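Study this chain:
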Amino acid sequence: MEGFLKIVFILFLSYYAVILFFRYALPWLLGRFIKKQQEKYFGQSQPFVKSDAPEKEKKSNRTTKKQQQKDDKTFGEYIDFEEIQE
């Protein structure tokens, strides 16, 4: 009889633990997850802090333009193909 009461008591406690988890812990966890995802999303769309960014962009643009010119020269020559009619 004591074993049966022990099992009933454990089932009773676990039932209420599940109810409390779904009522309080799960909404809190979901809310926290949603806030973090919103911060990630909106953090990506905001512009970066402008400290040295324009100087770095100018330098990188200069190097990329030079590299593009070099790549254009070494890429090859343009060949215009004509269709042959049989």
